[in-house]
Amino acid sequence: MKVDGKQFRTIWRKPGDECVVQLIDQRFLPHDFVIEEVRGADQMARAIREMHVRGAGLIGASAGYGMYLAVLEAARQKSFDEQTAAAAAQLRATRPTAVNLSWAIDRQLQAIAGGQTAEEKIALASRTADLIADEDAEHCRRIGQHGLALIQQIARSKPNKKLNVLTHCNAGWLAFVDYGSATAPIYAGHEKGLPLHVWVTETRPRNQGSKLTAWELGQQGVSHTVVADSAAGHLMQRGEVDLVIVGSDRTTHTGDVANKIGTYLEALAAKANDIPFYVALPSSSIDWKMRDGKDIPIEERGAEEVKNADGWHDGQHTVVRIAPDQSAAANYGFDVTPRNLVTGLITERGVCEPNEKSIRALFPERPNGGRRFGELSICC
Ligand code: MRU
User: Fold this and answer.
1) Which residues pair with 193 in a beta bridge?
2) Which of 36, 159, 278, 345 is deepest in the core (most CB within 10 A)?
3) Separation of 255 CA from ligand 1 center, angstroms?
4) CATH fold of the domain at 2-135
């Protein structure tokens, strides 16, 4: 996608230096555009844990490149296997909810195991990291096309009227390698000239909506308005929302969806107001082992994120205290929206109902409870 008119992905290899991966450090957006150079698995683990990069797809792609850097480092040591296993464990422990993280690490471990020599393992890890990133971008592009058909269908029932889409948090291109999941249909519709307007919920406590989604929609010229999270129900009641599209950090193969905290309340409000509630996700976010959304591990982050707010003041990143010092605060990163509140899942292979039968019909090659890698899914 474009930043000040120039094409960017969220993560890429540094041209001319095979030991460096570059990424957009999202902690400084929307006020500063900073590119970080990552030179090792340890640094990549920190970038994921401290949310320089975030969002399910990008966490997966970053872990893929982190494993590539780990293999480069391990090739210089005697204990190759222990080194790569330690890096895999370190990366895996960074964030618990997005399933893309362990999906990418397992895919890398399987690929690396196919090489005999260090050179072969490096080549395999390098190719797999690029495949994970390219696949993520291509799958999001396809989600855009399938979601566009849905938007066009709704637009036909409201000829010449503004179409209001509500989205939560950032399931935009910054949460993936390119295009985004929830935003991809919006970008596709915008390109086709549909009169779209997006309600962007700010998404406390880290404000990925007001900081990131608003910024990226602005960069692409999409009309949008930032609202407090608690405004979503009010807007729906007043007929100001035609459609909700959110992303997912982990979706069970039975259709329960873990997404940023607050999503469940929006889904309840959408159901009560008869508004279609879609979840856009690449298949790398589907957990093929987990049946029940209640089993999804929910990240709990530091209380300071809730007690404080941060932003830009006089050209400086500034943190201010909101809650009383003595008050306890709890910071749940995600919640689970049960399948009965979801209208449909928009995947790279099309739209399906949020149930096991319909999901498996789109992905018949997935073994029950197992994982499958290596088909460059840019084929369907
Ligand atoms: O905590 P984050 O920023 O990594 O959370 C991820 C998200 O932005 C959302 O939950 C998003 O809707 C799904 S990730 C594509």
Assistant:
1) none
2) 345
3) 18
4) Four Helix Bundle (Hemerythrin (Met), subunit A) (1.20.120)
